[in-house]
Amino acid sequence: SQYATATWTNEQVFKWLNESNIAEGIKYQLRAFDGKMLQELNNIRKEAPEYFYKAISQSSSTSLFDIVCF
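The structure corresponding to this sequence follows.
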């Protein structure tokens, strides 16, 4: 659930990223995130999708395919 995710440690987030086969470019961008930060990222995605996709696509190693899969 969303509330359980907010309590995740950085290690738990990284484990989830690896288990979810998230693209390397996105994993790199989220490498320091904990659950609370991941939850805030989801809030930004919902409230400001243009900003979210612009910010996440600024990584040179993140393709449009990777963004759509994320």
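The helical segments are 2-5, 10-19, 24-29, 35-47, 49-57, 64-69.
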